[in-house]
Design goal:
With 104 residues, the chain is an all-alpha fold. It has one domain. 70% of the residues lie in helices and 0% in strands. The chain contains five helices and no strands. Helix 1 runs antiparallel to helix 2 and helix 4 packs antiparallel against helix 5.
């Protein structure tokens, strides 16, 4: 949980150093991995959503959409509410859409 919260602290910074950006990316992946080992599907979906949010915030649409799609897949398999895809698409712009998102 501390790693998940640290990602939010870093996301909320108005500006980040390169080191803070690296920490944010790595911490998001660590948090997602830990939840995949000890959590419920909803926790893993939330981890994927947070990864999508990190990449979307950084203006990196390809990994943002990848993680948003994973979140959607987990939600369709029984996770909780999906939030990652819309955020990733909004930040990526109209040119990037996740496969199967149904939105154009």
């Amino acid at each position: 949980m501390a790693t998940f919260n640290r990602v939010w602290e870093l996301l909320e910074l108005p500006e980040r150093t390169s080191e803070e950006t690296d920490e944010m990316i790595h911490a998001a992946h660590v948090s997602c991995y830990v939840w995949s080992q000890v959590g419920q599907p909803a926790n893993v979906a939330q981890g994927e959503w947070q990864c999508a949010r990190v990449y979307a915030t950084l203006g990196r649409p390809e990994p943002a959409l990848w993680h948003a799609k994973r979140c959607l897949e987990l939600n369709e398999a029984g996770g909780e509410s999906f939030r990652g895809l819309g955020s990733a698409e909004r930040r990526a712009g109209d040119g990037a859409r996740a496969p199967g998102s149904g939105r154009r």
